[in-house]
Write a structure and sequence with these properties.
Layout (H helix, E strand, L loop, with lengths): L1 E4 L1 H8 L5 H15 L3 E5 H16 L5 H9 L4 E3 L3 H16 L12 H15 L5 E4 L3 H4 L5 E2 L6
Helix pairs in contact: 1-2, 1-3, 1-4, 5-6
Length: 154
Amino acid sequence: MIIFLDTNILGKLSNPNDHPDAVQCKVWFERLLARWVYFVSSELCFYELKRSLILSVKQGNDAEGLNQANNLRQFIDVLIVDEEVANIAAEIWSTSRLQGNPTAANNSLDIDIIIAAHWQLLVNKFPGRYIVVSTTNLKHLRLFTEAEEWQNIN
């Protein structure tokens, strides 16, 4: 199994507080790591997460969340956005608009579409493997990927 972690899940995993949802998500992640599940995410998902954490630190808050986000990279392969990903994302983006299913404003970077492109490449690279996007944004990501909320992935 390959699990692609969306930004919102990375946020739960790097949350330094004892919020029950974050704690449960961390237990889920560690349990699947122990089963040798392969975790990936996009450099853009880490960007989305870290920009908020860096701003928070600059506003005088504790850096523990940022430190935990940086530590996550030990366990998650981070996929870059290269020409191949950008080309696939552009195709998905234009198709979504032609079908009347835009996932963001026309001038938005639309990271959901980038995630969908990464997912398609993973499906092509690992035929027959179950590849799922772990997210809380099922509405948009299910249009183009196999997507589930983290609690439903075992």
